[in-house]
Amino acid sequence: MNQLVIALFRTRQDTALAVSALWERHFDKKDVSLLALDKRQLSIVCRDTGLKEPVSRHGTSGLFGEIRDLTSSLTLRDQVTWASGPAAAKLGGAEVGGKSDGLIVSLVGIGVPEGDAENYEKLLIQGHFMVIVECSKERSIEAQHVLEAHRCVETRKEKRVST
Question: Residue 23 and residue 21: Cα distance in Å, rounded?
């Protein structure tokens, strides 16, 4: 069974360096996801590391999707998540900090204990960036060491829930 290694970083620079270090250790892009509340900053990390542009569930394709993305990043920036990578479908666009427990429920749904999910939400609201690596148990130790070597605020390994 795969595990999730989750780390949070204060800056986009530390996030980008950590993700680049994962590439150097031959982790696959299909196993790495990023999550943040600031689309512009997350877009820079994605560009610097070769990951796809972040998305939220609020966006669709075409002109209306672009307008919706723009208004989300301007007016709802601190209320919805932006994500890149395989977790984008489940975590992108999740609401944070309000009456809705959107992000917390989504994180619990992928195997994160509720208490940890609540803490991650608080850190994201403070402007941190989340890196999620899904990998084998054997590689999870390596992923954790790589992320911890790049000034992460917090790191955790969780068993992956099959979906």
Answer: 5
